[in-house]
Specification:
Layout: H1 2-7, H2 9-30, H3 44-52, H4 72-83, H5 104-112, H6 132-142, H7 157-165, H8 182-196, E1 224-227, E2 230-238, E3 248-254, H9 261-268, H10 270-274, E4 279-283, H11 308-321, E5 324-334, H12 336-347, E6 354-358, E7 372-377, H13 386-399, E8 406-409, E9 416-419, E10 428-432, H14 452-461
Helix pairs in contact: 3-8, 4-5, 4-6, 4-8, 6-7
């Protein structure tokens, strides 16, 4: 028997592998996403949780549509399916535009129980998309969550504060006037259902610590990463006040087209002004040898610049290995670096807290969150047009829901303007300056002003 086993060892090995495949296959199939379009989606677990509990379904084509806006009819169905234990009933014809459709019983139930309001013309508008501010109010009240409404801010601010303080969404990542997506809805409802059944508890204690908190500091300071198959280099400065148990702010500083990261580190002055109270990263654009370094490729879409991925990966790596304050992610840049900084603030508005830029325009994107912004430029700048700078300002005003009320602020002689009626915690400061002489004593209105580093650092510090 021993000889048989030895002589047929490869047959037996293959048979074992075959049996392993047979027994493991069901588990592998369970790992596949319920809907093909959520396989890599950040809120996949929440969508599958709601699906397993019969709260949501997909579309007829088998997809879920996580990035699609949720409408008023869908939101009422999901609120009631996830929060009401009893019979919802079979109501109909409770509004002039709600008759006997699939959603009628949910809307009519909500009307009877005083859960909803309607428009002055007597309609409910069931197919109209729901903005985030409305959605938060509807869901928190639908789950009978006690929200402190003693606020002189916008009517929706207490709801933003609640989801922020209870680690559902960051208020720095939400645009109240933007449509809520089906994926965001799933995550919110998932957290509310967990609280309802006692699996989690709302404590009003904001957690800003990244997963790297508590880890021993890496023995070697990182200077390179591989992003989309390309080795990318950067300078890393770990502030001398770093503590593995205390979340620290992180600043990304992007250079312009001609000056490398080694040079801008010497004149940005943000590092000096921080006094060791930040992690600062100076990435290098491509090609690294210059002089035409860039943060994008010629064929990039405006909303998908090449080095958005560089920012994403570096932020993730540092959050995994260092103790980062997730509410204190900042970006600064000059010239082409300012253009990239301004553009990044729109594309990654859901993770960036504030920016400081000098002499740059922007791409026009559909922004993902509010970002406090200080943007500076010499009106006589001959390398970055005044019109491009105004476009960047106007994008940020729109992004942060600012009006036109202003007041003068900033260093003497700068004529800075603060837009005071923006979304809370997302001010925009627009700073024309007249510093036109560079360190060599030459006329250069595209320069980084001497006071810029301190002004930007102070602005970042004010966003605590």
């Amino acid at each position: 028997m021993k000889n048989f086993l030895w002589k047929n060892k490869y047959f037996l090995l293959g048979f074992v592998v075959f049996l392993s495949f047979i027994f493991m296959y069901p588990f592998a199939s369970n790992a596949a996403a319920i809907f093909p379009d959520i396989a890599n989606y950040k809120y996949r677990d929440s969508i599958e949780f709601l699906y397993d509990h019969g709260v949501v379904k997909g579309y007829d084509n088998g997809t879920f549509g996580p990035n699609l806006a949720i409408n008023r009819a869908e939101i009422m169905k999901i609120i009631l399916e996830s929060s009401v234990d009893g019979n919802i009933g079979s109501g109909e014809n409770c509004f002039s535009d709600v008759h006997d459709e699939w959603f009628a019983r949910y809307i009519c139930y909500a009307k009877i129980h005083g859960m909803i309001k309607w428009y002055t013309d007597g309609t409910f508008k069931p197919t109209q998309a729901v903005i985030i501010a409305e959605a938060l109010k509807m869901w928190l009240e639908g789950f009978s969550i006690n929200v402190n409404k003693a606020s002189e801010d916008a009517w929706y601010q207490p709801y933003l504060e609640f989801v922020h303080n209870n680690n559902i969404f960051s208020k720095y990542a939400l645009l109240p006037s933007k449509n809520m997506t089906r994926g965001e809805m799933a995550y919110l409802v998932h957290q509310l259902m967990l609280e309802k059944d006692g699996s989690r508890q709302f404590t009003n204690q904001r957690d800003v610590a990244s997963v790297g908190c508590g880890k021993e500091i890496p023995t070697t300071v990182p200077t390179s990463s591989v992003v989309n198959g390309i080795a990318r280099h950067y300078i890393t400065v770990i502030g001398n006040k770093y503590d593995k148990n205390t979340p620290m702010k992180i600043i990304f500083a992007f250079h312009g087209r001609t000056n490398p990261n080694t040079m801008v580190r010497t004149y940005y002055d943000i590092e000096k002004e921080s006094h060791g109270d930040a992690i600062i990263i100076y990435p290098s654009g491509l090609p690294e040898e210059g002089p035409s370094r860039s943060w994008s490729s010629p064929w990039d879409k405006k909303s998908q610049l090449r080095d958005f991925a560089l920012f994403d990966q570096l932020l993730e790596e540092f959050e995994n290995n260092y103790c980062i304050d997730k509410d204190q992610v900042f970006v600064a840049g000059h010239s082409l670096g300012a253009w990239f900084t301004n553009s990044l603030s729109c594309a990654r508005g859901d993770v960036i807290r504030a920016i400081g830029s000098v002499g740059g325009g922007t791409t026009i994107n559909d922004c993902n969150g509010p970002v406090a912004a200080m943007i500076m430029q010499n009106p006589d700048d001959n390398l970055s047009s005044y019109g491009a700078w105004v476009t960047a300002r106007d994008q940020m005003l729109k992004q942060n829901s600012c009006g036109q009320a202003t007041m003068s602020v900033g260093p003497e002689g700068w004529n800075c303007v603060l837009y005071t009626d923006c979304q809370k915690d997302a001010p925009v400061i627009w700073c024309p300056h007249w510093d036109s002489i560079n360190e060599q004593g030459n006329y250069y209105p595209h320069t980084w002003p001497d006071f810029a580093g301190k002004t930007i650092w102070d602005f970042f510090e004010a966003q605590k």
